[in-house]
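Data card: per-record layout.
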Amino acid sequence: MNVDNSLSPHGGALIERVRPLTAHDRERIAALPRIELREQIARECVNIAYGFFSPLTGFMGRADVTAVAETMRLSNGLVWPIPIVLDVPDAELRTAGVSVGATVLLTHQGNPLATLDVAEIFSLDLTALAGQIYATTDPAHPGVQRTLDYANRFVAGDITLVCEPVINPPFDRFWRTPRQLRAELDAVGWRRVVAHQTRNVPHSGHEYLMKGAFMEARADGILVSAVIGEKKEGDYIDEAIVLTHEQLRARGFFRDDIHRTTALLWDMRYAGPREAVFHAIVRKNLGCTHHMFGRDHAGVGDYYDRYAAHEIFAQLPDLGIRSVLTLEWWYCPTCGSVAYEGICGHPDAKQDLAGRLIRSIISGGREPSPQTLRAETLAIVRQCADEYGFGTPFVTEQYLRQRTPPLTIPPPP
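The structure for this 413-residue chain is written out next.
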């Protein structure tokens, strides 16, 4: 079966670096130095191993990080916008005896996850790096703060997954490796696939965004790719995102054969246009031919122009996945319906579907109408608040601290 149903993966080959432990391996790794990974890095290790981040085969070295920060390309010239790095405190490296040329066991939740062949250990100017990636050094930007919080040393090298993760409910229904997803898309005959990146519960504007992109791309299907991972407080909880998007298909608002919800393990950087490019590359690796981009894609606050994600693709003719660029959808009380920025003549009357209107509905201050938020969506949001969100559908410190993690690393058999 030809599973490469659409574009070739980024760089031309789908990376897979997975080799489950054997009894002999377990004896060998027992003597390896160990580095315990926090959740974000564990998720990225999994993504590298399964090819979500193709062509990366491991965590980046200094040359690639520098090239990405300065030119938005890897050192070999291939477009790549965001560094994928493994930071480790220098004291921890010394205690574990990690050195260049060594093989290290990467663990998570105390169990073996992957091996890393150490090619380089280096330091970076974190403030300068943040400024290059995010176009600001303001620590109020969550991506900048993430960068400034990095440990003072970075370890580069190829990784090999030695223990496959268990994806926990409800995400297990939606998570597929790139190879698995490409095979599924091939089996249902989707040749033109338009990706919808989301970290939100779908309101009517999102529905129109997906429908418009589907028609513009003349697509066979819409792949909703929901970002699952650490987010800033006030964002929607992950469980509400995937379950509300899935109900759009389950209840027939999108035909069963043209809509599919999937999960991507990724911690949002809020890097605006750079992250838009990253999202396009990852969805290219998943087998998508098109990617939709609306207003303020992957942005936060006022750090980026509303349509910066549109403008950046004009600089990247070699990216290899077509962008479907759309303006804003809003609710217009004068028109009495959802309206499109490029058509509606009442911009002063618009009600922003992404702002206070939707949040007031979800928080119980208003009752929804189909022109804003479906009652079916609201019911699932409130159910998720009770079941997963400690009483709220929005990310809180308690949710980040006490939630069931999306993945579990089981002990070796």
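Known properties of this structure: The longest strand covers residues 111-122. DSSP finds 14 helices and 15 strands in the chain.

See the next section for split statistics.
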